[in-house]
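FORM 12-B: Structure-to-Sequence Request
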């Protein structure tokens, strides 16, 4: 039974290189991996497995425990981490101070924009975007089956899965465009 919990770990792992733009080039910054281990705790580590750090509190195995955390997403600069708690709360934690706050109630599967200024997430309304300070929360596409948002590399579009196909929508919102539809569920 425990091995069945491995799938969420693989799905929710995220990688982000961490470093400062004003530092002189030297050794490359370690790539960080954020993951939930399938039992409600979120961790951060270097890609080689070193520097393992538990980010969220230890929970019971009951997913109704309000500390149970999933879908971690590190910010591009590595200073923050967003994740989902039960009842679809999106929290964000400052990785230096350890201070966390609720970013939004009613969403899940957060993902930072490439510039780190906004977060896209899934909700019962469709795909939403909010600024990282919780301002300007808006639905960019109303599709109740939409999930798994990801930003395009330039941050101008959000790609998501819905009804077995992949679609995209501009970050300003609008009519989604189908990117990939075939006989398989993508």
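FORM 12-B RESPONSE
SEQUENCE OUT:
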């Amino acid at each position: 039974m425990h091995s069945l919990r491995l799938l969420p770990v693989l799905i929710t792992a995220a990688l982000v290189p961490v470093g400062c733009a004003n530092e002189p080039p030297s050794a490359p910054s370690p790539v960080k991996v954020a993951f939930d281990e399938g039992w409600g705790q979120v961790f951060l580590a270097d890609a080689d497995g070193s520097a393992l750090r538990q980010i969220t509190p230890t929970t019971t195995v009951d997913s109704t425990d309000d500390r149970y955390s999933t879908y971690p997403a590190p910010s591009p600069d590595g200073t923050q981490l967003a994740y989902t708690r039960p009842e679809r709360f999106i929290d964000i934690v400052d990785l230096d101070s350890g201070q966390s706050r609720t970013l939004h109630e009613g969403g899940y599967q957060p993902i930072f924009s490439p510039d780190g200024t906004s977060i896209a997430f899934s909700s019962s309304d469709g795909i939403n975007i909010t600024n990282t300070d919780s301002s300007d929360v808006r639905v960019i596409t109303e599709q109740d089956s939409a999930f798994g948002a990801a930003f395009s590399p330039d941050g101008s579009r959000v790609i998501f899965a819905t009804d077995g196909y992949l679609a995209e929508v501009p970050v300003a919102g609008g009519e989604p465009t189908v990117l990939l539809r075939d006989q398989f569920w993508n």
